[in-house]
């Protein structure tokens, strides 16, 4: 977010010299904020709404005594950034009974299988008994990859090879999980290179079969504002409960993190920050907003 943070600095500078925020002197910093967000690859409608909200709030009556105009603007932008990303951390859905069932959905190469392993380790560290289920029968070696990851983090992996249909593998995996009293089942679903009806149809079938508590779409942060459109497509088609934003350690400009909730209505629940199994964190809108503001 360095680029974004630096660009925003310019916005604060433009109001620093003025005594207070007014309809007049707010124009310049708002232009800077708008430019900063667009450069960070935030989707245009999101930028428009954001800028409007910030301007209203900054000029509004919610005056905070003792703050200089630039401090006030920083505070307003912080609050709006936080709310843009969902306000507070979105937890995994807790099941009323039986195991948590988490479907990992996503396109190939986004880091879906890696995220399944990471989430398994994350839940295992919370003391849960976790089962991984390998249903990605289309990508060569995806099953082996998950088995290897499972071995590394000492989490069992249920698989039936590549000849059984994904919904059926998922069904049998869940059956095993219930029988052996697992607390959480993470299903690595079949990915594809692009969104198509077959992918969505199969995902729906798998969903119907196992009735997941969470369906998490894995998105690559490097895809910028396209990530938001992808989440919206999946949210509309299969009713996901949230996203995992991967590769946040790369040189993503931040657009995906800022656009996803607003565009799709679904929160980012976790972020992936590296290739290691430990590199997964819950997504905290507050911390992200602070980081952006430097
Ligand atoms: P899938 O096809 O979606 O299952 O993708 P994989 O899980 O196989 O991941 C694709 C590549 O991205 C692999 O080389 C992973 O090591 C890498 N990867 C996954 N998550 C992250 C991440 O958070 N950061 C980085 N730097 N690499 C990641």
From TrEMBL:
Keywords: GTP-binding, Hydrolase, Nucleotide-binding, Ribonucleoprotein, RNA-binding, Signal recognition particle. Residues 267-280 form the SRP54-type proteins GTP-binding domain. The keyword Ribonucleoprotein applies. It comes from the Eukaryota. It catalyses: GTP + H2O = GDP + phosphate + H(+). Its EC number is 3.6.5.4. One of its GO terms (molecular function) is GTPase activity. One of its GO terms (biological process) is SRP-dependent cotranslational protein targeting to membrane. GO terms for cellular component: signal recognition particle, endoplasmic reticulum targeting. Belongs to the GTP-binding SRP family. SRP54 subfamily. This is signal-recognition-particle GTPase. It comes from Chlorella vulgaris. The lineage of its organism: Eukaryota, Viridiplantae, Chlorophyta, core chlorophytes, Trebouxiophyceae.
